[in-house]
Amino acid sequence: MAVVLRRVNRTVLALVGLLLVVGGAAVLPAALDVGGLPSWRPWSGPGDVLLSRSERQHWRAESWWWPTVIALLGLVVLLALWWLIAQFRRARLREVLVDTGDGEEAVLRGRALEAVMEAEARAQEGVARARVALTGRRAAPRTRVALLLEAYASPADALTALSAEALGNARTSTGLPALPTEARLRAVKHRARRVS
């Protein structure tokens, strides 16, 4: 997903840049009133307009015109929203490459590794809920861990146990020298206890 998004971004930026350069090259000589322009050019001087009145009103009487314009504008808005949402989504890693030690590589499903890490993190003392997401590249994965801690749990102890158990086991089983992790901790909402 991230690679596709990068390609889409580069393609869209290249097309917009090309469109702006061609449009600027077409309009600038007329705006600067450069003499000797060919007769086939649509604009020949600073007083010319982009679209004449007859060109602007040519299709307005047709029954298909306004539904087509509205449908095209709606499509542009939907594509722009899809692109905007895609910018903020972090793609999850589908698989992780595991070095088998004999010069070959095995492929481990990302969801399976996430599920095992979540189960190990949830089994820790004081952890109410855990979520793990793998990001990055197949050969160099990264993890994002969200822990919901019980009211009595110590955040320092939870991080130590997470690093030693869930992350340590994941590094060992995949043969990765490092597994960079971003951990977010939150506490369960609870009522204050009365002291008598």
The tally of helices reads 5
- Beginning-to-end CA distance, first to last residue: 57 Å
Rg over CA atoms, rounded to whole Å, is 29 Å
- Name of the CATH superfamily of the largest domain: Cation efflux protein, cytoplasmic domain
Walk me through the structure.
With 196 residues, the chain is of the alpha+beta class. The chain has two domains: 2-88, no CATH class; 95-187, 2-Layer Sandwich (Alpha-Beta Plaits), CATH 3.30.70.1350. It has five helices and five strands, in the order αααββαββαβ. It has helices at residues 2-31, 53-57, 65-88, 110-122, 155-174, and strands spanning 95-99, 105-109, 127-136, 141-149, 181-187. A three-stranded mixed sheet has the order 3-4-5. A two-stranded antiparallel ribbon has the order 1-2. Helix 4 (110-122) packs antiparallel against helix 5. The chain starts with a helix and ends in a 9-residue tail after the last strand. The mean pLDDT is 83.
Topology:
Blueprint (H helix, E strand, L loop, with lengths): L1 H30 L21 H5 L7 H24 L6 E5 L5 E5 H13 L4 E10 L4 E9 L5 H20 L6 E7 L9
Parallel strand pairs: 4-5
Antiparallel strand pairs: 1-2, 3-4
Helix pairs in contact: 4-5
Keywords:
196 residues; alpha+beta; Alpha-Beta Plaits; three-stranded mixed beta sheet; two-stranded antiparallel ribbon; 5 strands
Give a brief rundown of this model.
This protein has 196 residues and is of the alpha+beta class. The protein has two domains: 2-88, no CATH class; 95-187, Cation efflux protein, cytoplasmic domain (Alpha-Beta Plaits, 2-Layer Sandwich), CATH 3.30.70.1350.
